[in-house]
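Continuing the batch. This is chain 6 of the set; chains 1 through 5 are on the previous pages. Same settings as before, nothing changed between runs. Recording input and output for traceability.
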Amino acid sequence: MSKRLYVTTALVLSLSAVLTTQTFAQDAEPAAAADEPTQVVVTGQRASKRSRLDTLAPVDVITAASLAAQGTTELAQGLSRVTPSLNFPRPAGVDGTDNVRPASLRGLSPDQTLVLVNGKRRHSSALVNVNGATGRGSSAVDLNAIPEAALDRLEVLRDGASAQYGSDAIAGVINLHLREANHGGGLSVSYGKYDTEIKAANSSRHASDGATTNVSGWVGLPLGSDGFLTISGETRRRNPTSRGDIDALVSPAVVTSRYGDPAQSSYSFFVNAGKPLDDNWTLYGNASLSDLDSKSAAFFRHADASGNVSEVYPFGFLPVINAQSSDYSAAVGVRGNLGEWTSDFSLSAGGNKLDYYTLNSINPSYGAASQRDFYDGQLKYAQTVFNADISRPFAISGWASPLTLALGLEARQETYEIKAGDVQSYALGPLTTKSAGAQGFGGFQPSNVVNEDRNNIGVYADVAADITDRFSFDAAIRAENYSDFGDNLSGKLAARYKLTDSFAVRGSVSTGFRAPSLAQQYFTSTASVLDTSGSVGKIVETGTFPATSNVAIALGAEPLKAEKSTNYTLGGVWHSGPFEVTLDAYSIKIEDRVLLSENISKGFSPQVATLLAPYGVSAARFFINGAATTTNGVDLVANYRLPTDFGRFNISLAYNHNETEIDSLNTLDNSPLNPQPVLFARVRQVILTNSSPEDKATLAVDWTKGQWIVNGRATYYGDVIDPNADIAKDIHSGDHTLVDLSASYRFGTGTTVTLGADNLFDEYPNKTRADLNVTSGNGVGALAFTRFSPFGFNGRYLYAKLSQTW
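Output for chain 6:
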């Protein structure tokens, strides 16, 4: 660990000691926790079920009520506010990532966190984040495609778990548990908008925008006398926000950009059901459907810009990137007993389809004959998964509990497709000196069309037991075979020792892996340009190519390997009466991280030009196993329940410190290039290590008295760097604390009215200096605030919510 991390850990331990001392002094209410239901955790424990404070690895349990108490209607945003090790930035100006935003656990890549629904693997998005934002190069699960109303609780395992669940669980696991109800229901309607003062480098103004209406609800129905059917749904409509600075190239100088949240409309549905077949077996299943229509803005094109056709847009134009995302999933299974074995067999399927359109734009190489609106093509990902899990206890003489053995198998098939868009969305028209393709977002062309698939099978064994009343252990091993890159073996050992009735230490060591996604292996997006360097001009391609393409192989690329990790966690749990605190330090070493390279241009050297010439390519980038990194950090979570004559207080404090360092950068070992180009410039390196805050802390106080509920939360975000090739031009978000406050009144009829404010004091990241903002070309003045801000840059959000339960 770094010196700073040692100091931070020491401070956290000191704080823990202070809190513990204060608790002993206030232990006059030892029964305060009696009305708190015991939370049994299933995530990360294949062979046993333990309460939240008895787990062998750190697990956060977030209830649906905790999420509902917030102003945000986005699941990922709400989850990030109550889980300090999880970040959910709000990037803008990065094409598709504006619309399907990724979440990051412990500062690692979004695709290094496994997402489960009722313990079954959830499909990822078809989107590949290829632009300069957090999670560059990843394809992550879209958490916002899942309605909050469908959830009973969430469990966030902050520990490597590849040995238990397979690929992607390097940073941890998010397990979403669906609501199971055979009666009752709820309906919620909320409305909110931003009311903020925007203070950019060259201007200031008041804004009232981003109006959001959200309607969600659920109903529980009986299936016979002993089954349940729970139907949940949500619909949301959000207007865009705009936070750019003025454009000095127009007169009078006004804001020409729309830099902020996209306009969105969405709906999502979830159905969850269970029905006993007899005294032994239960049939269960769930299905979901969601649809998102999102419109973000590209940079403004001026009237005299080379990308404009002045006859069509005499005053310039603002292209709009329209992403239409559709998700579906379905699962069916049975669980029961096969003799002494508890068994669970299931089949699930799911996928995401992402269609792109560019609106209010033009292909300047077609002149005035160009289309204004373009269909840009489609990305599509799907998976089908079969799971078989069995377990049984074996009594061992002298042990405090039986040894539980769990065995299982998972078979998965995946497919990935790219479909081409309209000809004019990508083509170079008759005006060959002009730019090709739709301005703002060029379409996929026929050479980008992909249709690939793969399958894998994994088997695991897990044993767990309490050897004594004080010592527990869990050990797991998993073997995987992928049709495209081969075998992997992962293992994990975790243990917990109770030193006193109130204090226990716990730790784990594990190896993990993440298979390169099909998108990382096969995604391709290129543009056609006119090459005039020779005696005769010719059309060539430039862009992203698969690592297995002839172009990438010619430059030295190799088929991608799996990322491999080694995780270490050591921590402690202390609880007494109404007080509890957990402290966990971790270290995650990852080899062969899959990264997107820089563009390798023919202008780098005559040798590169010679290698690219046969393929009609002027520049190429591709995914490679590019780096080894080490992530060190510490998590502190403390909770205190305090009943008083003035109401009940629930006080929680959570803190995460996280540092990622690059241990080594890989080169193209098989490349014929001499010299070799820089594969990962400083900007890419800083995005990898510093695009999430090193420090994040949350202090929350919930007060309940009678029919009143008041929730207050202060969240501190450490500085994040928006990097530049020149370190002197880095943009820093700065250290900031945001305060959220809401008050609810519950009527006796089941009706609850809530008024609240997120970011009550209208906090913004540091404004971008005028000389570091866009000053020429497209998008002048747009980037008034950094897109890497961990809390976005929209300002104060005011909202009201009306809820009814029955």
